[in-house]
């Protein structure tokens, strides 16, 4: 091939051409306009070379196959017609691959996503390595689009409509093992023999052999996927599920559903045409633009340690966790599951330690149950977990995270104990949600080694980590905390050591306002329903039950003390704590719980908080009050430098408590509304309801200058 080309090939024995895709000067292979031309030229050359009888295709990257399309090119599209043409060109290229007279086997190691998987689906035979890095999926709906190069047509025909919709509509990425079980790949092998097995498959196909695949799902698969009536039921159920999850706020899953259904009903050609049309429409929507912005922001955060010229992080191979409760066990289990480090849990007595070890193990058991890990890997990871009622084993820990009771003196006592048993360069991190890190570090003999690592509950599922350095924290300690957070699978943002940090700072007024609305006569389920329709995963009342009323009371108390009357707690909430209605963890809060699942609103709560549902303000005003009080505090926090940039603030809010991603985060949503409009509405609300709605200086200045958070 030409020098600098992404694809090169050489002829091996038995007439098999070995094609290698290696995009120079890029960490991953991605499909761009130039790569498409290269692919086209390569396959034309292979088709016309009479010595070539079959093709074996590999990635030249050691850790990924093809990560998908070049999103930089995608965001430059300005019209639906341009986007539709881009999709149609991709379809035509992969159609050429699928129709190639020279059979093609592909060896997949590492990420095979989006356009990468669509390419693999167009090939005649797929071999995948069983390495954990080998992941296959069509995550396009997470960018507000759909698989537009034939993915909505080829995947359902390969594995059946139900299994394909499960992947496409949720933008799922599956392990190679799961992909093999589903029938997406034909063989699953150790990475060491991937090349040999793929070459052997190409040689067999060169001799006329073709793989015979079973009907996916057996008889039940035929009932639901193999006939029009069954498929109608599948599509109806999928549509209902999508609407239940998205409330119509995300158009991509419904469009993908239509593309799949159209293709199975009217044939491949008509399906491809409809797929391209829908791709074109989605690509220029505001929702897609917002989701792409979030993708770029989170990608940038993966390389950002939150400080200028960051030193290399300390490599953590041993973690100490003090506190075997819900958070401590969650941190321990997640650290083992994601980072495969030795973890030692310490608590005051052995029964607590045993309970914490069991809870941490449940995280690994769940991964085994979901087939994310093998029984062998499960046994190996379980062996990394240990615990005690003393600090034996902490001496070699590079990082110790405390997750004890939220009390300054208790945390300072733990810090003092840990410093006496750990090495001088060990990092001490506090999983505090309210206490300032510099206050905890006042008790330290090595304050430069002290930092905050605020995880969110439940640790195994919540993707955000707030890293909080004090004014004295050493740069390498910041790098270490951020680096280890990433190894635990978290998106880490570095935030200022200020009351509430970032998430609780902007969440508290939102939760408080929900309390004011309850007192004014709005029904519990009405508040939650309106905010779910706005785009939150749960409403603020459900969120209070999830967090725990005792935790919420403590957070509000800290914020009230720090910032005064605008954070004044709603008196009605104090009665909830006194009566023991702490939320889901005790089976009763605003809602009743049975078997850990939310049931119905407990009407006795209204008596307890001295409120009776009588309608209250109009729905539009309820939403406005809840959203604007949060946007106002977010703007104030940016002005105080609580987050380093609006990017970090938006990503933190989306990953920390589920601010609607399709709205781009609170600061981007504020930009969309416009500062002048927000200031005007806040002034109106302040006249009616008091100073807690007074617009902050940041928004006033933006309104005067017609400025925005994001340029």
Write the layout of secondary structure elements.
Elements: E1 7-11, E2 16-21, H1 33-48, E3 54-59, E4 64-66, H2 71-75, H3 80-98, E5 104-108, E6 111-113, H4 115-122, E7 125-129, E8 135-137, H5 151-159, H6 161-168, E9 173-175, H7 176-182, E10 187-189, H8 194-206, H9 218-225, H10 228-246, H11 251-266, H12 268-283, H13 286-301, E11 318-322, H14 326-339, E12 342-346, H15 350-369, H16 375-382, E13 385-388, E14 399-402, H17 408-421, E15 427-430, H18 437-440, E16 450-455, E17 464-469, H19 475-487, E18 491-494, H20 503-519, H21 524-534, H22 540-547, H23 549-563, H24 571-578, E19 591-594, E20 597-601, H25 604-609, H26 619-639, H27 646-657, H28 666-673, H29 675-689, H30 697-705
Parallel strand pairs: 2-3, 3-5, 4-6, 5-7, 6-8, 7-10, 11-12, 11-14, 12-13, 14-15, 15-16, 17-18
Antiparallel strand pairs: 1-2, 8-9, 16-17, 19-20
Helix pairs in contact: 1-3, 3-4, 3-12, 4-5, 5-6, 5-11, 9-10, 10-11, 11-12, 13-27, 14-15, 15-16, 20-22, 20-23, 20-26, 21-26, 26-28, 26-29, 29-30
Name a few traits of the molecule:
single chain, 711 residues, alpha/beta, 2-enoyl-CoA Hydratase, Chain A, domain 1, Rossmann fold, N-(1-d-carboxylethyl)-l-norvaline Dehydrogenase, domain 2, 3 domains, eight-stranded mixed β-sheet, six-stranded mixed β-sheet, 30 helices, 20 strands, 51% helix, globular
